[in-house]
Design goal:
Elements: E1 3-16, E2 31-41, E3 46-51, H1 57-72, H2 80-91, H3 99-119, H4 123-127, E4 135-141, H5 148-160, E5 166-168, H6 173-183, E6 189-192, H7 199-211, E7 217-218, H8 227-233, E8 240-242, H9 248-258, E9 263-264, H10 273-287, H11 300-311, E10 318-321, E11 324-325, E12 341-343, H12 356-362, E13 363-364
Helix pairs in contact: 1-3, 2-3, 5-6, 9-10
The structure holds magnesium ion.
Length: about 375
């Protein structure tokens, strides 16, 4: 496919989470920052992609606009993973993790969307190695509230909405105990620490987490790529998960070699896009490791994750960021299936069609 144009769009959509905007980032977190990438081919097809958001979308856009788009426009892309590897090679001196790879991820997703549209099939059909699931299951991922009564109430709300499993971003035991008391003993609860604990603190918390019980413990220690120490936390009553801050299949391979985790968590808008995600799925299959992808997205990153879950047996569940956006950039169809599922779009590509009114209303420069 010959690429005729690459465009980028920034959107900021406020959301409500029922809390104080505690978040996990450097400042108060109250809005979804979206970087959308639009790639056009010579036949008028349009592919959509998304680079990881939060507070860095302007930096990621700079990489797409200045370093990727000028080399892509006019090129013919036949093999998206081969294009991805060439882009990584060209840009490696700007970093093998962070905005460079977020930018490559965004364009990679758009190129896959375009390839599936040109083939006239949903992306899941293009990627499938066996059957395709019509819908994918989700767990509710709550933001950090740092308030036992509040997080217990929001956890109840999520169950009332139809979710049957939860992930908490709380890092203190009173909050975790409060949720367990509120939801009862049978609801699976995973705990995402976002690398806030030391190795020694994690060791000290493990018996309590085992008793909670904890479905999986995510990114307990800093730095999150310290695979040697992560490996020493395994086999102690709580499955260890990480991967949203690892980049490319090369780093995942190294982590698997170290025996770092029980569960791999690639994030399609960070890890190098669909091409790298597929290589990680092969690795997961070869080593018998499940995938629980990082997917707190609402745009093309969400739709790409949905198709990957539909196509790949290794994906167990996806992450639903349990906040209420002021507007939806694209409709997401909750399935009638229980527990909480989302239908995988059956239109060609990833099925992301942005709402033009929302695009204009929340667009920023
Ligand atoms: Mg996480």
């Amino acid at each position: 496919m010959k690429i005729q144009a690459v465009k980028t769009h920034l959107l900021e959509i406020p959301f409500h989470d029922g809390g104080k905007g505690e978040g996990i980032g450097p400042t108060t977190w109250k809005q979804l920052d979206l970087l959308l990438v639009e790639v056009h081919d010579e036949q008028g097809n349009v592919g959509w992609g998304e680079g990881f958001g939060y507070f860095v979308t302007r930096s990621t856009r700079g990489i797409v606009d200045r370093l990727i788009a000028p080399t892509l426009v006019g090129e013919t892309v036949v093999d998206v993973p081969a294009w991805n590897r060439m882009a990584q090679r060209r840009l490696h001196l700007f970093g093998r993790y962070g905005v460079t790879l977020f930018a490559i991820s965004a364009v990679d997703i758009a190129l896959w969307d375009l390839a599936a549209k040109r083939a006239g099939v949903p992306l899941s059909h293009l990627l499938a190695r066996g059957g395709v699931r019509p819908s994918a299951p989700f767990y509710a991922s709550l933001v950090r509230y740092a308030d036992p009564a509040l997080v217990a109430r929001i956890a109840r709300d999520a169950l009332d909405d139809g979710f049957t499993s939860l992930k908490l971003h709380e890092i203190a035991m009173p909050e975790l105990d409060a949720v367990r008391s509120a939801v009862g003993p049978d609801v699976p609860i995973s705990v995402d620490v976002n690398a806030n604990w030391s190795f020694e603190e994690t060791e000290a918390f493990l018996p309590t987490l085992e008793r909670l019980p904890t479905w999986w413990l995510e990114e307990p220690i800093f730095p999150p790529e310290d695979g040697t120490r992560l490996a020493r936390l395994r086999g102690r009553g709580v499955p260890i998960a990480a991967g949203e801050n690892w980049s490319t299949s090369v780093q995942f391979e190294e982590m698997v070699r170290l025996g770092a985790v029980d569960v791999l968590q690639p994030s399609v808008t960070k890890v190098g896009g669909i091409s790298e995600f597929l290589a990680i799925a092969d690795l997961a299959e070869a080593h018998g490791l499940p995938l629980l992808p990082h997917s707190p997205y609402f745009g093309p990153g969400f739709f790409a994750s949905l198709h990957l879950a539909a196509a790949l047996d290794q994906v167990r569940e996806l992450e639903w960021l349990y906040v209420q956006p002021e507007a939806w950039i694209a409709p997401i169809a909750r399935s009638q299936r229980q527990p909480w599922h989302v239908d995988v779009p059956t239109t060609p590509g990833i099925g992301f069609e942005p709402d033009p009114v929302v695009m204009e209303r929340y667009r920023v420069e």
